[in-house]
Every structure is written in structure tokens, then in C-alpha cells.
């Protein structure tokens, strides 16, 4: 009888082994909504949908490749042009990760720690701060990128129209060129 229970226990352990290894290797993909947040509360990451919180039982991986360790709050950002090796930050109490992988810090101290800076000077109690959002290395909102690219296409079409009017002297396109430089800076600058 003891051998039977031992055999069932061993089979159960083997059946769950790949599942546990996958959780440690990088988390499981999760479905999110625009209201989903992964918040560090009481030393662990929980999932918050609006006002309802649910404890996590495994590490998660967001659609953009951001991985969140639910036990220690380490967030792994995927590699990109700015950080070819990726980037890791640790969430502090109240910090949360948005569904797009952006991190919102609860205090200036946690934001400074994520940037690798020393602790900022203490602030008086009751001081209000605007949320500091870090979208990870090289993050760019796709809707914003599309909007900027559409604006660039419009400006280039305007420039083509001005240049193709057949005027004997070269038309002045300085205003359009300046706007194109600003758009290029927004498109190619650090995100």
C-alpha cells in the first residue's frame, strides 16, 4: 500500500515539474484589460482589476514581453536598442506595472531606485506628487508612433506639393523642414 502512495506521489511530482520550471523560467502569458495592474502590496505582487485584487500564484509574462516575478517584485524588461541586454527593476510597495509594461512608481524614492540613483531627500508628509511612469527601455506607445508617422507623411506630402509647383525660384520649405525635424526627434529620441 505504501508503495502505491509513493508511486502516486512521484507521478504527481513529475507531472507538475515542467509547470514549475516554466514559471521560474519566465512566467506564463496572461490576458489583461486596460484596467489591469500588477501591484506590489505587502511584499508580493497582486493583480488588481479596478478595486478588486487577486493574489498571484505564478510569475506572469505580459504581451510585450515584460516578465513579473510575483514573489519578489522583480520586473524584467525585454532587450531593445537602448538596453540590448534588457533591464531589471524591483518594485517597491505601491508600485505597479500596467498591461503595456509601463511601470508606475508610488514614490520618488522608488523611482530613483529604479533609475539607479541614490535616495532622494526626504519630503514633508502630505506632499503630493504626479505619478512618475517609466515605460521601460525604448518603450513607445504604438498609437503615438502611428500618429507621429501619419503627421510626417502629411508634412512630406505638403513639401512635395510646394516643390512641384514649378516656380522659377526654389520655394521656402523651412517651416515644413523644422516640423519634420521635431517629428524625427520624437520618433527617434529616447522613448
Quick summary of this structure?
This is DUF6799 domain-containing protein. The chain has 191 residues and is α+β, with helices and mostly antiparallel strands.
Structure description:
- The protein has 191 residues and is of the alpha+beta class.
- Helix content is 36%, strand content 20%.
- It has four helices and eleven strands.
- The chain has helices at 2-25, 108-115, 142-163, 174-188, and strands at residues 28-29, 36-41, 44-49, 52-55, 60-61, 67-68, 74-77, 87-90, 96-97, 103-105, 132-134.
- The strands form two sheets. It has a six-stranded antiparallel β-sheet with strand order 4-3-2-9-10-11. A five-stranded mixed β-sheet has the order 1-5-6-7-8.
- The chain starts with a helix and ends with a helix.
Low-confidence stretches: 13-24
Note the main sheet: 6 strands, antiparallel
Q: Could you say which overall geometry the principal axes of the C-alpha atoms support?
A: elongated
Total number of strands = 11
Helical content, roughly?
A: 25-40%
Count of discrete alpha- or pi-helical segments spanning 4 or more residues: 4
Q: Which class best fits the helix and strand makeup?
A: alpha+beta
Provide the gyration radius in Å: 24 Å
What is the first-to-last residue Cα distance?
Answer: 63 Å
Q: Report the mean per-residue pLDDT as an integer.
A: 77
How much beta, percentage-wise?
15-25%
Order of helices and strands: HEEEEEEEEEEHEHH
Order of strands across the main sheet: 4-3-2-9-10-11
Domain DUF6799: 38-102
InterPro entries: DUF6799 (IPR046478)
Signal peptide: 1-21
Organism: Hymenobacter segetis
Amino acid at each position: 500500500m505504501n508503495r502505491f502512495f509513493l508511486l502516486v506521489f512521484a507521478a504527481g511530482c513529475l507531472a507538475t515539474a515542467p509547470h514549475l520550471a516554466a514559471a521560474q523560467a519566465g512566467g506564463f502569458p496572461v490576458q489583461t484589460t486596460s484596467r489591469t495592474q500588477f501591484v506590489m502590496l505587502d511584499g508580493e505582487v497582486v493583480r488588481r482589476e479596478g478595486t478588486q485584487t487577486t493574489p498571484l500564484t505564478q510569475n506572469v509574462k505580459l504581451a510585450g514581453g515584460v516578465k513579473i516575478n510575483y514573489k519578489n517584485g522583480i520586473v524584467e524588461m525585454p532587450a531593445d536598442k537602448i538596453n540590448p541586454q534588457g533591464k531589471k527593476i524591483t518594485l517597491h510597495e505601491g508600485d505597479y506595472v500596467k498591461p503595456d509594461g509601463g511601470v508606475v512608481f508610488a514614490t520618488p524614492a522608488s523611482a530613483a531606485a529604479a533609475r539607479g540613483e541614490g535616495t532622494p531627500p526626504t519630503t514633508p508628509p502630505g506632499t503630493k506628487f504626479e505619478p512618475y511612469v517609466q515605460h521601460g527601455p525604448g518603450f513607445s506607445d504604438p498609437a503615438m508612433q502611428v500618429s507621429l508617422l501619419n503627421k510626417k507623411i502629411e508634412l512630406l506630402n505638403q513639401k512635395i506639393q510646394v516643390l512641384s509647383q514649378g516656380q522659377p525660384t526654389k520655394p521656402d520649405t523651412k517651416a515644413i523642414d523644422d516640423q519634420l525635424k521635431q517629428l524625427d526627434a520624437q520618433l527617434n529620441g529616447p522613448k
